[in-house]
Amino acid sequence: MEILVCVTRVPDTAENEIEVNADGSDIERDSLVYSVNEWDNYAVEEAIRIKESSGGSVTVVTVGDGESEEVLRREMAMGADRGILLQDESFAGTDGRGLATILKAEIEKGKYDLILAGAQADAGAGEVGGMLAALLDFPYASLVNSIEIVDDKTLKVGREVDGGNIEMNRISLPCVLSIQTGINEPRYVGIRGIRQVASVQIPVHGAGELGLSTAAVEPRVRREDYFVPELGAGAEMLDGSNEEIIDKLVEMLKAKGGLK
Amino acid sequence: MAAQIFAYIKHKGGAVDDTALELISAARNIDASAEPIALVAGSGADLDQACSQTASTYKQVWKLGNSAFAYPNAEVLRKALLAVLPTDAIVLVPHDAFGMDLSPGLSIKLDATFVADVLALEVSGNDLRVVRQEYGGQVSSHSLCRMDKGAVINIRPGAFAPVEALASIGEVVDKSSYVAEVSTGREFVELIEAVAGDVDITKEDILVSIGRGIGDEEGIQIAEELAEAMGGVVSCSRPIVDAKWMDKSRQVGTSGQTVKPKVYLACGISGSFQHLGGIKGNPFVVAINKNPKAPIFQVADVGIVADLQEFLPELTERINEG
Ligand SMILES: Cc1cc2nc3c(=O)[nH]c(=O)nc-3n(C[C@H](O)[C@H](O)[C@H](O)COP(=O)(O)OP(=O)(O)OC[C@H]3O[C@@H](n4cnc5c(N)ncnc54)[C@H](O)[C@@H]3O)c2cc1C
């Protein structure tokens, strides 16, 4: 099976305190730790497992800048065969629809049976996979947490829905799936793996190669600013030494029935 | 505002979801006098019941009946909606597992703007200005969305106050005959219900809940010890289950369990809305997190900025001393 996985480079929210810059035009980017979007990493792992069990290839693609190369290499070190970087000045301020349009243009240059994306990324929108499927006119399933190959035309996929229930679907290839975390345990990537792919050429495709006009990636949703919401009531913050904090906390827990 | 506003109504076994009343509020933030048209899809007696319940708050209900809609398969329903919606429609959909499945593709097929997981909105000139959260809720943003070609807007459940149910009866318009073609490349097979675990966290009064901040699998031990000292049990956020450190039945959240404890200790949990969506009944929430700006501090009653590895064992020791 020829599989394409869409990945993206994001600030690691588990590791970073994200702060807004002085004029609210962006987040503070200095000293942020970046990584591959968590959901995408699961998608790449799943693609590699399918390749290992039934053959084919895995291509990872990202829309980004030069720095995004590092996430492509990381996923190649994991076992993806190729990386493609889609980079152009006109791509910079685009929205989810624009990203899907750019990805579609690249996908149509190749021949893929299965396209995977992460269920969502740092903006929490979860939109690119579904938009891409609709643009390609491929069937789509989101929040997929299991994939079983039925035959060369069909997959059986589980979608995670409310309350931890799983919705099983039959879906025909080619299709687009967005992958939910928990589907697998992504393998560890060691320094050795990274070194092995360090010198592999990564093709860069711009708007020209993809046949995209500026109008095609013009955003319909434009971010005006970032801000930190006012903290409503907010929590009563306990401070002092650990001992003092624990004294106060234990009193509160007793009063609220938090100690039996 | 010229374009008509529609609201996608979720229902289960004929009972309409709370979001139905919230979407009216959201619509009225776009246009104060909006009377959105309800879109109710389904089949059989469940559909009739859902339509009549919806008609107690919506003036107009569009009924989409088809045996293929018995289970809400988003690919099939997208086709149905495309058959009845006008091109410049503004469509409000709850942002949940179904809305995430349906809406991005629907917006492309309608050639409409899409914006996901909206917390607040207002009209700004010809555009819509929306508030969203990004980076796991650590910061918020305003975005301007074009509306001239219509829009599909996913509304975060719980973000808008529900309107009161009206006494008046709305009109149910049967649009089923407009929907000719419902087959797609994706076919619903079955729903597999979540299995119960060894401990039922939904029945516990005291939960020591751990998130990614617990660090590693060994960290679970210090949470277990604290829970035992407090007389409660350990629950967790999703990454702990994804890492297979705890059973799925211990996961709190929209794709996990809904809990109603008296006391909820959130340890190393950032406070994403999918996690908070599983905490009901207004418990006393204590958040322990090393990041003073973690979004969990916006909803907790009491906040402590500390490292779990150090703080939890000290707290346990103190409680055990009595
Ligand atoms: C459709 C969908 C459904 C989902 N359903 C659920 C669900 O049901 N339940 C759920 O929980 N999530 C769910 N999620 C995932 C959710 O979006 C978040 O990714 C998840 O809740 C984050 O978990 P966390 O808070 O444990 O981790 P993180 O967001 O990574 O936060 C970890 C926190 O720990 C703190 N920390 C780190 N180290 C320490 C330390 N040593 N001491 C103290 N604090 C520390 C950090 O400051 C940070 O705030 C869902 C996502 C999607 C897309």
UniProtKB/TrEMBL annotation, chain A:
The record's section on SUPFAM superfamilies has: Adenine nucleotide alpha hydrolases-like
Question: Which Gene3D superfamilies does this UniProt record tie to the protein?
Answer: HUPs
GO terms (molecular function) for this protein are: electron transfer activity
The answer to whether keyword DNA-binding applies is: no
Q: Which UniProt keywords apply?
A: Electron transport, Transport
Positions of the Electron transfer flavoprotein alpha/beta-subunit N-terminal domain: 24-214
Which PANTHER family does this one have? ELECTRON TRANSFER FLAVOPROTEIN BETA-SUBUNIT
Q: What is this protein called?
A: Electron transfer flavoprotein, beta subunit
Annotated source species: Geobacter metallireducens (strain ATCC 53774 / DSM 7210 / GS-15)
Q: Which gene encodes it?
A: etfB-8
Automatic annotation (TrEMBL), chain B:
- Coiled-coil region(s): none
**Similarity-based family:** Belongs to the ETF alpha-subunit/FixB family.
Residues in domain Electron transfer flavoprotein alpha/beta-subunit N-terminal? 5-182
InterPro entries per record: DHS-like_NAD/FAD-binding_dom, ETF_a/b_N, ETF_a/FixB, ETF_asu_C, Rossmann-like_a/b/a_fold
Q: What is this protein called?
A: Electron transfer flavoprotein, alpha subunit
* Keyword tags: Electron transport, FAD, Flavoprotein, Transport
- Record keyword Ribonucleoprotein present: no
One Gene Ontology term of the biological-process aspect is: fatty acid beta-oxidation using acyl-CoA dehydrogenase
The residues that hold FAD are 212, 237-238, 251-255, 268-275, 289
Q: Which SUPFAM superfamilies match?
A: Adenine nucleotide alpha hydrolases-like, DHS-like NAD/FAD-binding domain
- Gene Ontology molecular-function annotations: electron transfer activity; flavin adenine dinucleotide binding
